[in-house]
UniProtKB/TrEMBL annotation:
It comes from Flavobacterium notoginsengisoli. This is VCBS repeat-containing protein. It comes from the Bacteria.
Amino acid sequence: MRKIFLHSILFLFFSISYSQNEISFVQKDNGKIKISYKYLNSTEEEIAQEITVKNDQTGKTQTIKNIGVSITGKPSHLEINDYNFDGYTDFASFRTDDGMGVYNIYQIFIFNPKTKNFENLEFPTNFNPKCDMFCDVKIDKIKKTLTSSCRGGARTHNDVWKYDQNKKLMLLKTTSY
């Protein structure tokens, strides 16, 4: 009985944290950040049009307008993580792809401690990855890598990204199976 209860609580916790459309956290520099989607007509049934970031430390609100949205009406979600391994909390907006719905497409925003704003992590175009965007992103904090996984036909591709000494994202390796 205890195992069933524990599994139920864990399932509830992870299902709630997975589908967040508003998140708050305390940044490494003790600034409280609140991130939320702004919807057309103020209803969550509509497609998120922009992201609002409120920073209690600076008292400023940042509006991010160029977020990727589903053309088929699939909802977007928010996720926090340290995507560039600098100790500051970053966030991502993600949604299920508009095709078969087999992976999540990520748009990652990196915290800039100098400006206290979040900046869009541009997908590097000077490499030849198998995935043409960040998909099903996984973080390896020990190796300090981001892995993007996508499907192409009957194959699954994994692009492993790592930051170089100049804090630029570079393709470390690509595998397909």
